[in-house]
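Protein in question kept in full:
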Amino acid sequence: MCRCAQGNRSRVADGRVPSQNDLSAASDTSSAVTRKDGPGRVTREDHFPLPWMTMQRRPMTYRKERRDAPVGFFQAEACGLRWLAEAEPAGGTRVVRVHEVGEQFIDVEQVRAVAPTRQAADAFGKSLAVLHTAGAAAFGTPPEGWHGPSWIGRQPQANEPEPTWGRFYAEQRVRPFVHAAERAGHLGTRAADQLDDLCDRISGGEFDDDRAPARLHGDLWSGNVVHAPDGVCLIDPAAHGGHGMTDLAMLMLFGLPGLDRVLDSYAEAAALPTGWRDLVGLHQLHPLAVHAVTHGRSYGEELVAVARRYR
């Protein structure tokens, strides 16, 4: 996915998870991962490789383009942004505005990035809890106005409403990418079998709780969190109905400036139960499985290591 404000990759060049210092450069538009291919045109890399996406700066907007976009690719994103923005009047996190959308592009407002602050981190945690509380009709439900799959990077993923979180998460978010990683040679057969066993347990409800479906961003890593002058602004969602912990788990997987303050603020506002951090790994299975497909065996190894916590 492309971003309205320049961010770092999910992993720095040596393959390690980025440090706080790495993440502090997230708003630096001179970042080494930006390649200028012509006047006013920027092609970016992100936690998904993006030779297929371009970003064009216009007087008041950014245009994100993909010439080979599947039908509905940008419409799904636009619906997700608008759906998330519905929570703003109640105190939900600000979401970038959509100006125009077509089959091969989306135009969104320009957002000026500034340095993150402690106050912004505190406010983000609270506003994210409000956004989640806006809710969804079911686990797996797509954003209002959209029907069908959505995409995380270039990878399609189903949005079929389910009554329980476990069944939705295991069958639509984790298992499909585990099998895709195995087919790509990035995950061994034995490891895939072990992950299938864990998916069976998740799908069967072993980890379900009584929380209602939350209105999720769905791809909430640091590159999609822009620190703007008036607070955090969210971009590039894979929005759907899910469990609020899933957004937190993505933030914790890839890091964010002021993360501890964001988490503490969220936990208080959302009244998370004692021991909630013990379940974070379950909610990281999806992004790790996606990265195992797109980035190779090192993520497959991380995926297996996290899954082992829940044997």
Q: What stands out?
A: The first helix runs from residue 20 to 24.
